[in-house]
Design goal:
Layout (H helix, E strand, L loop, with lengths): L1 E5 L13 H8 L4 E5 L13 E3 L7 E3 L1 H9 L7 E12 L2 H10 L2 E6 L4 E2 L9 E4 L9 H12 L32 E2 L2 E2 L2 H4 L3 H19 L10
Parallel strand pairs: 1-2, 1-6, 4-7, 5-6, 5-8
Antiparallel strand pairs: 3-4, 9-10
Helix pairs in contact: 3-4
C-alpha cells in the first residue's frame, strides 16, 4: 500500500510514522509513505500557497494550483483513491478502514489548512473523509489516524491476525474486558471464568460482556450489530 500525503508540514509525520507497529510496517515495506509539500510545486519566488477568499470573509484559502501540481506529480497506481481530509467528509470508522485496506493500492491524502481549500480541488478528489464532528488546525492529524487504521489491517502488520477479529467495531460491538497477571491486584480479582480453562464458557462470557458494554457505552451501535 502506498500513501502519498500532500501537506504543508511534512515534518509533522516524522515521529508517528517511525514508531511502533506503524514504523515496523514501513520498515518491512508492507506500506510506503511519500510526503509532498505543495510549496515545492509553486512557480512564484515566494512559494505562495494561499490567498484571500473571493467574496470576502475571514481567513485565507489554499490555492488550487499547488494542490493540483502536487497530485499530478505523483505516479498513478491502478487502484488509487484521492482523499481530502475535511470536517465536511464522511466520518472514519472501522468499515471504512477495511474497505480502503482491501480495495486500494494507493491513497493520496490531501491535508487542508487555514480557512479552507479552493472548491475546484474537488475535481481531483474521489472522497472526503473526516475524523469527527469537530474542527482541527489542519488535516495532518486525521491523515495520521487514517494511515494508522488502514496499515494495521494490512497483512503482516499485526503478528496474530486473529487478534483483529474480536476488536471493537469488528462485529458491531465494543471489545470485551481484558485481564492479565496478577489474578488479584489490590483486591480487584480477575473473573473466575477466565481462570477456569473452559474455553466455551470464556467465549460465552466475553460475548455477553461485549453486549453489556455496548449497551452501556454505545447503544447507537446495537442496531448495526448482528449478535
Amino acid at each position: 500500500m502506498r500513501f502519498d500525503i500532500i501537506t504543508l508540514f511534512p515534518d509533522f509525520f516524522g515521529s508517528p510514522l517511525n514508531s511502533g507497529l506503524l514504523g515496523k510496517a514501513f520498515d518491512q515495506h508492507i506500506a510506503k509513505v511519500n510526503l509532498v509539500n505543495p510549496r515545492d510545486c509553486t512557480t512564484d519566488k515566494h512559494k505562495k500557497v494561499d490567498d484571500e477568499s473571493y467574496g470576502g470573509g475571514v481567513g485565507m484559502v489554499l490555492k488550487p494550483e499547488p494542490i493540483f501540481a502536487a497530485v499530478e506529480s505523483l505516479p498513478t497506481l491502478s487502484r488509487r483513491e484521492v482523499i481530502l481530509l475535511t470536517p465536511q467528509g464522511e466520518r472514519m470508522d472501522q468499515k471504512l478502514f477495511q474497505y480502503l485496506a482491501t480495495e486500494y493500492d494507493q491513497l493520496v491524502l490531501i491535508c487542508g489548512h487555514y480557512e479552507g481549500i479552493d472548491e475546484r480541488v474537488q475535481h481531483l478528489v474521489n472522497r472526503e473523509i473526516s475524523l469527527g464532528d469537530f474542527v482541527l488546525t489542519g488535516g495532518e492529524i486525521p491523515a495520521l489516524a487514517l494511515i494508522n487504521g488502514v496499515v494495521r489491517l494490512l497483512p503482516g502488520t499485526v503478528g496474530k491476525v486473529e487478534s483483529l477479529a474480536n476488536e471493537s467495531f469488528e462485529s458491531g460491538l465494543l471489545d470485551y474486558p481484558h485481564y492479565t497477571r496478577p489474578a488479584n491486584f489490590r483486591g480487584w480479582k480477575v473473573p473466575e471464568v477466565l481462570l477456569s480453562g473452559n474455553h466455551a464458557e470464556i467465549a460465552k462470557w466475553r460475548h455477553q460482556q461485549q453486549i453489556q458494554r455496548t449497551k452501556s457505552r454505545r447503544p447507537d451501535l446495537l442496531g448495526q450489530s448482528d449478535f
